[in-house]
Amino acid sequence: MSPSTLNDLFKNKVVLGGIVSLLLSILSLFVLNNLVFFVVFLVIFIILLLFNFIKITRKLYDTLGSRLMLFVTASIIFLFFLLLIILIQGSLRILSEESLPSLLFSSTWKPFSGEFGLFAVIIDTLIVTAISMLIAVPISLLSAIYIAEYAPKKFKNIVRPFIDVLAGVPSVVFGLCALLVFVPIVRDDIAPFFGSNISSGFSLFTAALILAIMVFPIIISLCLESFNSIPIALKEASLSVGATKWETVKKVIFRASGPGILAAIFLGFGRAFGETIAVSMVIGNQELIPSSLFGPGQTLASLIASNYTEVSSIPILASALIFVALLLFIVVLIFNLLGYLVLRRASKRWKY
Amino acid sequence: MLASVFIVMGSLILIVGVIVFNGAPSLSLQILTQTSEGGFYLGAGGGFLNAIVGSLLLALPATGLAFIIGIAIALYLQKDFLNPSIANFIRICLDILWGVPSVVYGVFCLTIMIAIGMTGGSVLFGIIALTLLEIPIITRSIDESIKMVPAGLKETAYSLGSTKVETAMKVVRRQAMPGIIAGVLLGFGRGIGDAASILLTVGDSNYFPTSLSDQTAALPTMILNLVSMPDQVVQNKAYAVAFVLLMIVLLISIITRYLTKKSSKHIIK
């Protein structure tokens, strides 16, 4: 495209944009009676008007384009720190009234009498996340290996899209199923089997179970991706020196895709740790130090979901919930950085 | 190994089956095409068209915004524009943002709402929360597909005298198109199904939202509200809503498959 046609094209767009924004500004003043929109559109109009007097050369187009992209990219970094700063600032109020140790290590959460101890909730969160990962990781690793290496091609072609779709199913749907299916099962079958007869079904174990199921598709689809990117020569080399299929899987595939598997597990962990809605639907929402796995509990994320309605009546509660959100953010931050460092080391060591 | 596949597939089929078998019977034309009447949560009539429209009004603008921001960042992260070590730093930041639970974005918006004295909720903050949620998802997916664009293709464009921005907008964008479509629809799917960020920011309403400061109903929050009611008949409506949500997600994934296939015809291998 020659410079002149580019210029014409751009000019046409500018003129069109100018007319549209002028019309919108008039519309927002007289029809919507909205001053803010009027000013916004007027400013756009004036900028576009200015553009009309500048000759748009390709060089200018290039400069403007890359400056704009730089601006957006810089603003996302800004957003990252803004998120952190706003959360810290919001939680300053609770931190000034209660010390950090008493927040983290006292276990009475009674917003109405002004006690905000998070210890029980933190313990519950750790238990639920750990159990769900204990269930999810081995099962999904084994199924990923089966799907990638052992399954017939037909089966693979059906299963892969299915798993991908399920990775996108909203958590509230999982929560609803857990409510309908797993709560009665845990109440009537699993809890009595383990000798706790008074479980209502709304328990830490139920939450861990549904989290494990939510994490399956995520770990499996990421693992499949990294299994598939292993060069076939690597597998053939192993098989040709007489290794059995399982030996190949264990010693070659797991090693070669080690970083990918680790990344999948970290991502699954993050999802399980921060899941809010599905957990709050089945966990029972009581801030107690658990006496058994089949008793009710509360995780950090579900604490926010079940307490936010009282924010307007107890102002300090808002600050406490912001502090909880800050905790979630920081844990995710630390885990991601840790994951990044581990991955970097791992991919150096397991290079092939 | 086979047993674990059966566990995984069984539990996932169970989830879908439960929603389909409980949701489909309680679905009717009337429930899909009417807005809720007053006392919908107490067993009154009406449908949940307001929630469907509300969800779309939240997720579509959020996806649009996140797409514009995401594609600008993803194109800028190429080593043609940015030093790779800085780009990697930004990628780590985006990955962290991706991992941040959606409820944190909800709290973030709630904090701002409290600070400016707004109570109840509004469409605007719902859109902001969803945009924040979708930006890392869309950006990283587009970024991954841009990484796959062969360097030779870009060099060809440069050797013909095109500038960096022209190369990015015309060559790289077109070559990365399947990834861009997949990323945007992935973000949209996450946005429309996310309950935690919406729950804290949009409130509830029986009508269509008419301005950005209105409260609105949305599909995920409606499920939560319906389920928390003691009445069994009301609870059954939750399955109908969940069924609609599941169908939307399924539809998105079918559209993704179709569009990626269609657009990958035009890429140079």
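Chain B touches chain A through 77 residues (CB under 8 Å).
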